[in-house]
Amino acid sequence: MEKSEVLLEVKDLKTYFYTDDGVVKAVDGMSYTIHKGEVLGLVGESGCGKSVSAMSILGLIDVPGKIVGGEIIFKGENLVGKTPEQLRKIRGAEISMIFQEPMSALNPVFTIGDQIMEAILIHQDVSEEEAKNKTIELLGLVGIPEPERRFNQYPHELSGGMRQRVMIAMAMSCNPDLLISDEATTALDVTIQAQILELMKDLQKRTGMAVLFITHDLALVAEMANSVYVAYTGKIVESGDVVSIFRRPRHPYTYGLLSSIPNLVSEKTKTPLPAIEGMVPNPYHMPLGCHFNPRCPFATERCRKEMPELAEIENNHFVRCFHPVLVNESEVVS
Ligand SMILES: Nc1ncnc2c1ncn2[C@@H]1O[C@H](COP(=O)(O)OP(=O)(O)O)[C@@H](O)[C@H]1O
Ligand SMILES: [Mg+2]
After folding, report:
1. Structural domain spans, the chain
2. Torsion from C-alpha of 187, 191, 192, 198, nearest 10 degrees
3. How far is the CA of 52 from the centre of ligand 1 (A)?
4. If you measure from the C-alpha of residue 54 to the centroid of ligand 2, how many angstroms do you get, rounded to a whole number?
5. Could you report the per-residue pLDDT of 173-226, keeping only the tens digit for each?
6. Could you tell me the pTM of the whole model?
């Protein structure tokens, strides 16, 4: 696929938390690039720095956290170092975010219609009537039946799936260039999750917005993303386009994530995929060398001493590993 213009470039980002117990290097030298209209899947287990990297982009890191290194270039401008006011403007107008728990982002005492309308009125130069019409149009666009009636409902009157649709309507209200979706469907049951993903895909295609799609579930990435970045302990350990990551995963961690997806790897692959054992390391006690080495079936002495660099292993496919694995080409048979 021919890549379009770069929209967002996260370069060697470092976001640390300075706690009483020590420094947590939540994001420790992460880089990724999102092109216009592209869906980038950022995947990894809980605690790998996915949300902190998203919050860094949005300028929402608070004490004891701090961006201590790197750049976040959005449309050619570095967001690191911008004032809170400048960042607020970008958040409302060009970058939107949806989270796992819409209830915490919605105000229980206002109707959903009023809340979306308010978001429109703050950021756009329109009359109340235009804002109301736009709100109803947005509610319809995200698949909420009877939008005029729903306009007057309160968040608690809606199901989890409908609330997530409201959040998406609110996020879409500014026609963002970038939508950040952070585990947005994790709390929903599988049927509703599939519907919400379908909706996001449809909106993405229609509007051409780019999406930073964050999830712990590699199976969802296969459905949604063009390119995939696998995060572990605040660093990218593997990246590439979706086909090369699923057909030729090279990092043992990516293998582990893949092996937890049922029916994903073909019968032709005779080599059994090693399941991941153990847990993400304690952020206050990172292992020496490669951070994955205590869980890795292929770790050697070198892996216990040295941190591998992220290196290009084939065209546009990068891996941070001294012993990248390669089984017979596996294929997605979902
Ligand atoms: N406010 C905070 N104070 C201290 N540590 C934090 C804070 N927020 C996040 N962290 C730590 O940063 C790391 C990355 O967290 P996060 O980005 O939320 O992971 P993910 O979204 O991948 O599950 C974790 O070790 C987490 O405990
Ligand atoms: Mg998270």
Report:
1. 109-175
2. 110
3. 6
4. 9
5. 999 999 999 999 998 999 999 999 999 999 999 999 999 999 999 999 999 999
6. 0.94
